[in-house]
Structure formats: structure tokens, C-alpha cells
Amino acid sequence: MEDLSKLKGVGHKTAQILKKKNVNNIFDLLWRLPKSFTDRSILSKINELQIGKVHTIQITPIKYNFPRIRNLPSRVSCVDKTGMIDCVFFNSYEGYIRKILPLNNEVTISGKISYFKKKYQITNPTYVSTDQSLIKGKHNKYSLTEGITEKVYNKIVNQILNKLPILNEWLDDKILKKFNNISWTEAIKKLHEPDNIGKFNTNFYKRLSFDEILSSFLVFSEIRKKIKKVKKNKKIFTNNLYESITAKLGFKLTNDQLSALKDINNDISSHSKMFRLLQGDVGSGKTIVSLLSSLNVIESGYQVAFMAPTEILASQHYNLAKKIFPKNIIIDILSNKTDFKKKKIISNELKENKISMIFGTHSIFQKKIQFKNLGFIIIDEQHKFGVRQRKLLSDKGGKNCDVLLMSATPIPRTLTMSVYGDMDVSIIKEKPSHRKNVITYSKLENKIDEVVNFVKKNIKNGNQIFWVCPLIDESKKVDHISAIKRFDYLKKIFLDQVSILHSKIEDDEKEKILKNFLDKKFKILVSTTIIEVGIDFPNANLIIIENANKFGLSQLHQLRGRVGRGSNQSFCILMFKSNLSENARKRINILKKTNDGFMISQEDMKIRGFGDILGFKQSGVKNYRLADPVHNEDLFIMAKEEIERIEKEEKNLNKYKSLLKLYDQADIINDII
């Protein structure tokens, strides 16, 4: 069932053409659904033909016309009782034409009708056969790649469907009943029937979607089991250190923060290895939770590694820890800027357990960096990690090492199940009481003078401003205001109070610009979207986002989260052109109404589909082929409950081998487990 070359009519050339469309095996063909169909079931007479339409007709060939000059087409004159039509062939051999259209024999043909020199004609008919039953019917249309015809593709797919074996059922009777007891084989056949195109609420479509979700959840379940099997030493602590620091914080932790801390502390003090996601909205206070939980790990004699995506973010976390941790806890930071001598000292001190906590980017997990007693890994902003990378990370820490991943990408429940099903999850929705909601306005781009006046007023009040533009340079294809053009415009008004940041600037220079902004050395930072990940700028209270209609809801929310980190009121201005699409208008209105990231991501998913939320397609997270986290929430919940039952009853995976293979999960299971 895997090798394409075993199919009749699929040689090396066709297999290569299919691979261009990411069709690498037979299963890929099964999951590529027809988008529409051509109805060839009705036989027409020649005098009923309509130019430009597809018709199926029964004709008799009466005369061949094979040209003796190259590049001219061959013609076959054909008739029925009502008129005459020419079948025209380009690049076809004489012998082939004689074979498929024998003179004075009744033949059924189907194709698009054209008109040339006062006569109907069909050029290169799609179907030709003396057996009309092979043509009469509805023929699926698939999204094809150049070099393969609808006829050939349908022939390949039908060949697979006709040879599908009857598989042993893997679903429980109770669940199977919910899908009217339809088998997997029967369901996949129905999926490819022309009359069933787009019928997403049918029992066969839901059965196949559920199978897809279940296969994905089985992988997550096996990873969880594998991690839980690892028995670690319990971390023993008193909470004294934690309590002395929380008393000096100057603010109260929210209920969600306290609940997340309880989850983490329960995990680290147990014999099972922690593999937990701490998910929270922008500015909900995840970092303080991770640092406070680190104290208990340090108190129990273990070391902590805190990894951030950028050096400036690593520095920010390091500085916060330095501010709140007691002086007797030795912490340090490792970055590309750390000189060789200092790196060597840090490396030695980590080996000797003289450093309790190290901050840095991925460099802290290099082979040459070794820990004496690593007990806790914290990774910030980790939606770039796929399932395999997360498992490797857990293994790297060793059996006594707990793992906490943090994400400021609030995503809906079904998507959390789909993306992070291999992990336990703690959620922080509540924001600290001292943080005010960001007030969001929308402005037409021709009102830029009003925006500039608002900026002047903010600068006068001592605030700093982010000004975000989508592209670096002017593009002929997309009419976006570039960051460089906007920077030049603002520089004429605000002189040396403006700086610019974009992806073409070297990393060292980027860090320097961001540090200067943090140190209030200039007032306005013009930037592309590279500022969207977690940096704290407490003095930035205004963000302007140009071409806001071009961004997704979740990305706009992340960008807006760059302000509102201090105690002052913050503002976001979304600028747009007048010709907004309906979806763009929806997105802007949702942002104006709410600051709730979870609600925003739910709406974003409804508008754009789950794969597009904040670049999940680019992050190694696999898109579902049939299941949809927005429309199939009931199936996701049902699959979660079924996994809990399977885990409780300790079912053997052998029953689900076919399922895992059909949905392309077998290799992942083998790799991970």
C-alpha cells in the first residue's frame, strides 16, 4: 500500500510528477480530495452541442486525415444521426488514432467542444472508448500538477480504491456506533465519490476525521507514557526561599499564577519527570512563575537552565532574576558576546555546580556545556519546537531533569490538544492587577497627521513609541509602506529621536538598537514584525501598526503586547487603507473590542484556519488533512476521552498499527518510542 511504482500506469516519470505535489506514497493519494467533478453521464447528440462546454457523445468515425507536414494536427471526421464533428489530435501517432477510433465502429468520446471552419470539433478528447460504461458517469477533478491528466489521475485513484483491503477495526463499538458503524474502507470510498464532495458533516467524513485526530493523540499519549516511565529523584524543598521572595515582590500573584506554580511544584517534587507547557497571554506573568519555581529546584540542590529565543530576551530574564533572587544564589548568562575566557569560567563552574542557574539562547545546550546536576530546563517562546524536538530536549536533560516550556501564544483548547498533546498544560489567562488593558484605535492611513500629533503628545509625556511596518523595501507586487520609507518620513519630523530595526540589520546591531531603546536613548523605534517576541519595554506605551489589515489577528495581538508592560495607560493604533476586505474589518473590530488573547486566537482560527495562527505551519506542527480544530471540536474532545480510556485500560498499541500507518504516524512512533 505504500509504493507508487507498484500501481499500474505509474512509471518513474509519473511518480516524479506526483512528488512535485507532495504525493510520495499511496496514502498521500487517498488524502488528496477531489475539489469538483465533471458530469459525463449524459449522452448528447451533435446538434445539441454547446461550444465551450464538456459533452459526451456517441459517434462513428468515417474518414482519417493524417497530414504529411510536421506540426499539423491529425483529424478524424465523425458522425451521428444529427450531424458531423471532427476529432483533432496533436502529437499523436497514426497507429494510436486508428486503434482508438476504428472506422465505421460506434465509439463514445468526451471532451470540450469548440467550433472551427463551420464545424464542431473536439481537440484531444479526454475520454475515448468503445465501451460507453467506462465514460458515462461523474469524473472527479483533483488539484493536479502539470504533466498529469484528470483521466490518468482518476485511473490511479480508482485503482487504489478498488484494491483497498478490509482492515481489522480499531475503534471501540461505542464510538463506531456514533459514525453509524461505517468501516474505514467504506468511508474512504465514499470520500472520493463525486456526489459527496464538500459533505463535511456526514458519518464517513467524521469517522475519517476522528481517526486522524486519534492517531495524532496516540503519538502524544505514547510520548507522555515514555516520559512518565522515567523515575527521577524527588526534589525536596521547604518553600522558605520562595516565600521570602514573594513577600518582597511588591505585587500579589494572580490566582492563575498560583495555580500554575502549584502544578509545577507538584511535578518537580514527584518521582515522575515533568514535561509541562506553561501557556499564557501576552503580559500575564509567565516569567515570574518560572523563576519562582526555579528557586525550589535550586533549594533542592539542582541546577537550572533557562533558554530564550534571543539574547536580549535572555538578558531581560537574567536581570529580573538578579533583581529578585537573594545574593547567595549564583546565576550567570552565556551569550555570543561572552568572551572566551568568561565562557571557560562559566563552563567550569557549571561542571562544579558553582552556578545554580544559567541563562542564554540555544548555545547553553552545546555539547561542550556540561552541568554537574541539571534538574530543570525552562524554554521561553517555544512554538518553534515540533514534537520530535521536544522529546529530544526532554531526553537531553537526563532522568532527573524536569522540563518547562513557555509560550505567549494563547491558542484555543482544540489547538492546544493538537499541538501540545504530548505535554501537561498549565494556563495563565488572568493578567496582573496593575496592568491596564491596551486601548485600541483604528485610523485610515490618510489620517497620518493626526497619528503624528498623537505621537508628539506621547513623547511630551515621556513615553516611547513602536511604529511597525510589514516590508523593508517598497514592493511592486504588494503596496505596503516600507519601514525604511516610514523611518525617513519620521526622521524629518522627530530628527535623532527615531531609530529603525529590521531583519537585514546584523544581529549585534539589532541587540544594540533594542538596548538603546530600552535605555530610552531615543523615542520612536520603526520596525518590521521582528519585535513581536516577548521583550519588556515598560516605557513604551504606544504602538502604531501600518497595513494592519495584512496581519493575522494573533500576530496583531502579539505586536500590541509590546506595549502595556508598565502601569501607565497604553494605546495601539491600527492603520489601514479604505478598501478593507470583510475579514480584515472583522479582525480590526475584534482587536478594538478585546485584549483577551485566547478569545482572539479562537476568532483568528475561525477566520483563517488553525495552520496559519502565528506561523504554526512554519514551526514543524503538522496540519490535519481532514480534521478541523474549529469545526470538529466535538471530535477532538471525544478523541481525548478515548485516549484517557486507552491509557486507563493500558491497551496495547498493536490494535492501532494500521491506523498509525494510514495517517502517517508510524514513523514518528518508531522514532520517538
Under the CATH scheme, the architecture of one domain is: 3-Layer(aba) Sandwich
**CATH top level label of one domain:** Alpha Beta
Task: Give the strand tally.
Answer: 22
Corresponding CATH superfamily of one domain: P-loop containing nucleotide triphosphate hydrolases
Q: Enumerate the spans where pLDDT stays under 50 for 5 or more consecutive residues.
A: 472-480, 611-622
At the third CATH level, what is the topology name of one domain?
A: Rossmann fold
Strand order of the largest sheet: 12-13-11-14-15-10-16
Number of helices: 23
- Judging from the principal axes of the Cα atoms, what is the shape? globular
Mean pLDDT: 84
What is the CA-CA span between the terminal residues?
Answer: 24 Å
Question: What class do helices, strands and sheet pairing give?
Answer: alpha/beta
Q: What percent of residues adopt helix (DSSP H or I)?
A: 25-40%
Rg, nearest Å: 32 Å
Query: Major sheet, described briefly?
Result: 7 strands, parallel
Strand content is 15-25%
Keywords summarizing the entry:
673 residues, single chain, 23 helices, 38% helix, Rossmann fold, six-stranded parallel beta sheet, 22 strands, seven-stranded parallel beta sheet, alpha/beta, OB fold (Dihydrolipoamide Acetyltransferase, E2P)
Structure description:
- With 673 residues, the protein is an alpha/beta fold.
- Among the domains are: 42-136, Beta Barrel (OB fold (Dihydrolipoamide Acetyltransferase, E2P)); 240-428, Rossmann fold (3-Layer(aba) Sandwich), CATH 3.40.50; 439-594, P-loop containing nucleotide triphosphate hydrolases (Rossmann fold), CATH 3.40.50.300.
- Helix content is 38%, strand content 18%.
- A 7-stranded parallel beta sheet has the order 12-13-11-14-15-10-16, sandwiched between helices. Strands 17-22-21-18-20-19 form a 6-stranded parallel beta sheet, sandwiched between helices.
- Helix 18 links the parallel strand 21 and strand 22 (571-576).
- Helix 6 crosses helix 7 and helix 9 (255-268) runs parallel beside helix 10 (286-299).
- The longest helix is centred in the first third of the chain and has 27 residues, at 203-229.
- 38% of the residues are buried.
